[in-house]
Each structure stands twice: as C-alpha cells, then as structure tokens.
Amino acid sequence: MRLSYVLGLFSALAVSSLLQAGASAQDAVERRVDELLGQMTLEEKVGQLNLVSHGPPLRWEDISDGKAGAVLNFNNAGDVARAQALVRQSRLKIPLLFGLDVLHGFRTQFPLPLGEAAAFSPRISFLASEWAAKEASYVGVNWTFAPMADLSRDSRWGRIVEGFGEDPYLGSVLTAARVEGFRKGGLAASTKHFAGYGAPQGGRDYDTTYIPRAEMYDTYLPSFRAAVEAGSASFMAAFNALNGEPSTANPWLLTDVLRSQWGFDGFVTSDWVGIGELINHGIAADGAEAARKAVLAGVDMDMMGQLYIRHLPDEVRAGRVPESVIDESVRRVLRTKFRLGLFDQAPIDPARTDDGFPSQEARRAAREVARETLVLLQNEGDVLPVKSGTRSIAVIGPLADAPQDQLGPHAARGHKEDSVTILEGIRRRAQSAGMTVSHAPGCDLRCGSTDLLPAALDAAKKADLVIAVFGEPQELSGEAASRADLRLNGKQAQILEALAATGKPVALVIMGGRPQILGQVAEHVPAILMAWYPGTEGGNAVADALFGDVNPSGKLPLTWPRATGQLPLYYNRLPTGRPTLANNRFTLQYIDEAITPLYPFGWGLSYTRFAYSGAAIAKRSLEAGESLDVAVNVTNKGSRSGQEVVQLYTRDPVASRSRPLRELKAFEKIDLAPGETKRVTLRVPVESLGFHLDDGSYVVEAGAIQVFVGGNSLAESAGEAEIAKTIRMPPEERRASASTGLAQ
Fold first, then answer.
1. Burial class of residue 325 (count of CB atoms within 10 Å of its CB; 0-12, 13-18, 19+)
2. CA-CA distance, 608 to 364, in Å (whole number)?
3. 13, 58, 531, 668: least CB-packed within 10 angstroms?
4. Alpha helix positions (H), 186-240
C-alpha cells in the first residue's frame, strides 16, 4: 500500500510538473509575442496578415519590406532559402510560414483521404500524414492546407475525395490522427474548410449550404473540434455561404464557436481570394468593405486577395476597424510562429532537393497504407483472389496503365514516373507465379467510343481471367469536379457488359474519388474491388490484394448509391413518420428505384468470413462520467488470416427531438488467424451519447439507448442500456483542452 501511495504521489507530481512546464512555456511565448508586437508599425502588423503565392503577384522585395507574413506554393529548398534570406534583411526579421497543399503526400503519394478513411485506422492516417510531412518539411515547407475535415453526404461533390466521408465520428478520429501525423513529421496543419462546405446545394462546388445550427454542431463541426484538440495550428475559412452568411465573414463560426466555445487561439486564413469573393456573395460593395467584414468576423490572414495589405491601414486610420482587432490577429499569427519554433530555426540548405524521394522506406509505407484502403465490394463465386491454376490474365481498361491518374488530384510534387501502375503491379506478381499478362485499354481515359473494344474482347477470350480497371480519370475528381451524373463515364458500362458476356470470370477494379453508379455492371461482373486513387505504390498494393498476398480489409466510409437521384444518401439519417413498407406506396420509397443503397456505410468483404456472437453490455444503467462498454466475440470462420473492423452503433429511440436511426460511436480493427476468436470491448463515454441544441448546449437525455455491433452499419442488435439522469452542458464546458500548435 505504501509503495502504491508513493508511486501515485510521484505520478501526480510528474503530471503537475508537466502542466507547470507547459504553462511556463506558454507564458514565455506570450511575453515574446507582446514584446514583438509592441515594436511593430501598423503596416508591419498588416504585413503579417498577408498570404501570397509564389509567382504573380508576389514581389520578392515585399518579403524584405515586411509586407508578407506567409507564402504558399513554395515547394523547393532554393526558393525557400531565398525567401528566408530576404526575411533576414527585414527590420524585425519575423520568419515566414511556407504553405502548400500537402494532402496525401509530397513526392511519395499515398491514397487520397477518402480512400485512406476506408482503412478505418487512425494508425494508417497518422502514418500517411507523417510521411507526407517528413518529405515536405525536408525542403522547407512548414505549413500544410490540410486536413480537409469537411463531412459530405453527397458524392456528386468532387471534393468529397479530400475528406473522410459521411460520418462525424470516423471523421473526427481520422482528422485528429492526420493533424498529429503532420505535426510529428514537421508540418503545422491548417484544417479546412470551416465550415459546412461539404453540403452544397445539388452537390455543386462553391454553392451555398443550408444547415440548422444544431445539425452543424452534431454532424459538420465534430471533426473540426477534434482538430482543435489535436493541435491544429490554424484553420481555413470556407468559400461557401452558410445559411446566407459567407463563412469568410461569419462571426458565429469564426469567433463564437471556434474561439469562444472551443478555446482555439491559433489563427484563421481565408481560402484563395476568399475575402474578395464577399463582393460576389453580395455582402460587400468593394474590397475595403470585404476586408473590413472579414477581419471583424475573425479571418486573420488574407490568402491571395491583397485586400488586407491594400485597405486595412486606411480602415484603421478611419476608425472603421479598431487597431486592437489587428493586434489580436497579428498576435495569433506570431503566437503560432513562436510555438512552431520558427524564430529559432536555422535557414534551410538550398541544396536540398526531393530527388531522393520516394525512398524505399517511403514506398513500403505507401504500399502498406494503400493495401489497407482497398474495399472488396463483392466477390460472387470467389473469383478473387486469383486462382493458383490461372495461366493467363487479360488486363483491360485505360486506368490500368495511367501513372498520373492513379495519383489523384492535388498530388503536390508527385511524379507520374514514380508510379507503379496497376498493370505493372499485376505483371510483376503474375510473372512470379508463371502467369502471362496481356493488356488492351478498351478505350481512352474518357472512354468516348468503343473503337478499341474488339481488341479488348479478343484478349479477354484468350485469357483465363479478366481484370478490368475502369473508373474516374484524375480530372473528373477533386475541386471543381462536381458531377450531375455519377454513372461510369463514357462507354465503360457497355465495355464491361461485353467483357462479362464472354463468359470469362471478370474482376473489376474501380479507380476514382467517389462511388460510381454501377447499374447492371454490379449484376454481371462478379468481383468488384474499390481502389480509390491508390498513389505511388498503388499497382503493387492492388496486385497484393488481387493475388491474395493480403486480404482486403477496407470498409466504405460513405454510403454507395444505386442511382444519382438518391443523393444525398447517408446511413445516419433521421427516422420518418412513414418508414418504408414494401407493399405500401405511401411510405418512404421511390417508385423507380430501391430505397436502399447498393452497399451500406461500413461495408467491405474479405477473403475469409467473420462471425459475431456473445454480445454483452457490461452495465445497463449509466451515470455521468461512466462509459457504455460493449463486448463481443469475433471469430474468423475461414481458412485465411484477415482483418475486421468491429463497429458499434447506437440509437436514442425516444428523445426531445428526432435522433438518427444509427450513429457510429466506436470501432476497432483487429487481426484474426483462421479459426481464431477474439473478444473485443468497445467503449463509449456516456457524454458522447447526446446531441446539441441550436445554441451549442449539449444534452444527454435520460432514457434508453439501443446498441448494435457488427461489421457494417446494418449491424445486429446487442441490446439496450439506460441513461439514468439527464446531463446538460453549456458550450464552454466542452471546450477543447489541447494547446494549439505547440511544437513537439
């Protein structure tokens, strides 16, 4: 007992010392900020709020004149070193932030974030972002415009590929992991786009969004709050108008929620010319008014608008913007730079290049990540993995040999020459097994005609197995790539139907940034593997899965629709007063399509089979501060080792307001050998079982909570627990506890 007491006391003292050390370091940062701020002229202050891109309109002398606080699109050490030398010529020598869109890799490209989310693994998200940061920081980049924490329920929106899908809990876990991975690798994060950008009307990029405030708190803001807790150094305001108020001039978002309620003390940047776009939104008559509204709302830095540098000094002198507002914005920027240690860093060596990338170690990491993201959507007749007796394979499709396209959009410094294509990966693996491989594209990337189909059919008929690689070429995904029709573009469906009609077994590999409407292809092609944009090592990773060297374990981070007209479509919808009845027209349904998705959220098959049994809730009556603990046995019933994502969902069936039919609350990815059983316990804090009110208050109401456990969002019931007493929390009581952006 005495030893336990001593150890406990020692532990408490250690924690206390760490807290004191953190507070002391923070106090030191604030003192340095105050000292520097006191030396600055108004023009130098506004200069810190100016973010300008490499190339026009950047004037290099602006850096030495103190008229730039940050720059972007600097991606080589020579240019970084030149800018740093100019900083040393400035009066106050305040270092620059060097920003770049490092979304899923720098030179070595990892799968796009939506594909990464399919791994259902914070370890994988951390690994990918750490590697991206290590490569980018090596050449002097210190700030990334990532992660994109925008939740989206509409696959028509092209930028869905940059996010984590439709679920707020999955998005929160993976957003936090990416922020932490970037920081570990040497990059400060700028989490974007704050907020609601992923729900534009009609899935049209840049269009307005209408989201009730309670829904914002419950669905669209949790991943951003997780970024604050994980230490995101900055946030980027969104392009869109939210409920008629543009995010770039929205004090509720930027001040009330982000700063007052969550306690964020880093800085906010606009998106590209986002402040100037307030004129197009119709809430500013000119650049001066746009600058004034943005800075008063809480946007600290103007990206590529040149409006702060042009207008804010005059706005301050005219009394329309208090200088104290400018001081606070500058304070946030300087605080971040001190926390990141930029004032104490040595200049970059201009001789550094990215020629040493991708290293073999980086390739191994990229291959590992890509393997985990692959989702086996269907596998009728066990077409996959490739049978050992197979002698010849026909690889059909233009995306099989598309080294640039498999990198996906926003590929930073990615080189197509670094890519191992899917065709190359299959050839390497087939050769080791004594199999021959032929290739016929079948059509060009846009698949506008069937002129190349006869050669593809000839190759298919001569082969034992057909592996078809189709989907979205790179230009059809990402920013400004909204689609009104998500069917396989061009003649792809016709070509796939013709391949299936040969009678040869066909496995379809889909490359792309979102679900595609498959129609009858899903009925006629027995095996389908979703590969997303798998990155530099995508070909090897896909071949690993096709040949069974690894067992696919990815799960869908969003619902896969049957038809574009079903969108937006998501599993965690609210109940309706007329739930679907098959023989009742006057219930929730379509008259021309099934109401259900083609594949549900969390879906993903394996080459083995997992069985769930013995689900048990540890404690049925729950109080504040306790957790809902659910244990379940998971057994590998097959002959192959595999990974399974065990998922726990809850529902509040009777509440003061309608609650979703299901909500993901916990998950764990486990490895199981053939015949092995593991008992998995998933834990959910009671305080995570509630919902928000419009004012940001949070309530966990007394009453029943239904529990479901399984391998996707259609998981089986595990019983009910009871919340004994209602818990209420005002917004400030749920303030993020992390100190943002501290260098580690």
1. middle
2. 25
3. 13
4. 213-215, 222-230
Spatial separation of the C-alpha atoms in residues 134 and 502, rounded to whole Å = 48
What does each C-alpha distance from 431 to 394, 464, 570, 611 come to in angstroms? 13, 15, 42, 36
Angle between helices 323-339 and 2-37 (to 10 degrees): 130
Q: Residue 14 — very low, low, confident or very high, per pLDDT cuts 50/70/90?
A: low
**Interhelix angle 323-339/307-317, nearest 10 degrees:** 140
Q: Give which of 671, 678, 690, 680 is closest to 729, Cα–Cα.
A: 690
Retrieve residue 205's tokens.
Answer: 């990029």
Is the pLDDT confidence value at 70 over 70?
yes
Burial of 350 (0-12, 13-18, 19+ CB in 10 A): middle
Compute the distance between CA of residue 307 and CA of residue 216 in angstroms, rounded to an integer.
Answer: 30
User: Do the strands 703-710 and 642-651 form a parallel or antiparallel pair, or are they unpaired?
Assistant: antiparallel
Token pair of 141, please? Answer: 């980049």
Helix 168-185 × helix 222-230 angle, to 10° = 30
Is there a contact between 487 and 519 (Cβ–Cβ < 8 Å)?
A: yes
Give the model confidence (pLDDT) of 525-554 as tens digits: 999 999 999 999 999 999 999 999 999 999
What SS3 state is found at 673? coil
Q: Omega of the bond prior to 195 within 30 degrees of 0, cis?
A: yes
pLDDT digits (tens, 9 = 90+) for 688-730: 999 999 999 999 999 999 999 999 999 999 999 999 999 999 9
Query: Which amino acid, residue 588?
Result: L
Residues with Cβ within 8 Å of 144's Cβ and at least 6 positions away in sequence, in order, are 99, 100, 101, 102, 103, 132, 133, 136, 182, 187, 188, 189, 190
What angle, rounded to 10 degrees, do the helices at 453-462 and 492-501 form? 30
Q: Which two three-digit tokens encode residue 74?
A: 């600097």
pLDDT of residue 733: 75
**268: β partners:** 235
Residues with catalytic roles: 271
pLDDT in tens, 262-291: 999 999 999 999 999 999 999 999 999 999
Type of residue found at 270: S
> Tens digits of per-residue pLDDT, 590-603?
999 999 999 999 99
78 vs 61: CA distance, rounded Å: 17
d(C-alpha 38, C-alpha 30), whole Å: 12
Question: Which residue, among 501, 512, 505, 421, has the nearest Cα to 467 in the 3D structure?
Answer: 505
> First CA to last CA across the chain, in angstroms?
36
pLDDT, tens digit (0-9, with 9 covering 90-100), for 436-456: 999 999 999 999 999 999 999
Coil, helix or strand for 280? Answer: helix
Residue type, 88: R
Cα→Cα distances 265→269, 274, 298, 410, 573, Å: 13, 22, 11, 29, 34
With a cut of 50, say whether residue 33 has pLDDT above it: yes
Check pLDDT > 90 for residue 10.
no
Contact 100, 145 (CB under 8 A): yes
Amino acid at 32: R
**Which residue do the tokens 């928000």 mark?**
692
| DSSP letter, residue 148 | B
Q: What is the pTM of this model?
A: 0.95
CB of 543 closer than 8 Å to CB of 406: no
**Cα separation, 331 vs 453, whole angstroms:** 63
Rounded CA-CA distance 264/256 in Å is 11
Residue 744 reports pLDDT greater than 60? no
List the Cα angle 107/113/118 in 5-degree steps: 125
Task: Report the run of H or E that residue 497 belongs to, with start and end.
Answer: helix 492-501
